[in-house]
Specification:
The chain is mainly alpha-helical and 137 residues long. The chain has one domain. 51% of the residues lie in helices and 7% in strands. A two-stranded antiparallel ribbon has the order 1-2. α1 crosses α2 and α2 packs antiparallel against α4. The termini are far apart.
Length: 137
């Protein structure tokens, strides 16, 4: 068998997904999404010391990124970082799946537990992967 199917103890034997987006691109996308969400929250509240500022920023991040994934296959930051997210069968995510994926991202830990192909728990649960966006620049 030439195809690697696991990358550690406890794996289910599912094949690794080739060609996923690099970690620098993923982190850039996350940073861009967070900065955009921060800016929108600042525009709404005009005060970073407001008690609800952090929660509002997180809510904006969740909604912006989930809506972007469902409509365009990528959040604002992912589009700028040239990343797209698709189900493993190639189909786009539904709004519900995009919300579930981004809710797991907001929990922080799921993206930090990942396989050798870079897919985190949030991707494994929903059978998704982040791929480099190819095409004309």
């Amino acid at each position: 068998m030439s195809e690697k199917t696991t990358d550690g103890p406890g794996e289910t034997g599912r094949p690794l997904v080739p060609g996923t987006a690099s970690w620098p691109h993923r982190l850039l996308a996350l940073l861009l999404d967070w900065l955009a969400s921060y800016a929108v929250a600042f525009f709404i509240l005009r005060n970073v010391n407001d008690q609800g500022f952090g929660l509002l920023t997180l809510l904006i991040f969740l909604l912006e990124s989930a809506f972007g994934l469902a409509v365009a296959g990528a959040s604002f930051g992912q589009l700028l970082a040239r990343i797209r997210v698709r189900r493993l069968d190639g189909r786009p995510l539904s709004l519900f799946a995009a919300l579930a994926r981004q809710l797991l991202v907001c929990l922080v830990i799921p993206p930090l537990i990942f396989r050798g192909d870079g897919r985190g728990v949030h991707d494994m649960v929903l059978d998704t992967a982040a791929y480099p966006l190819v095409g004309k620049s």
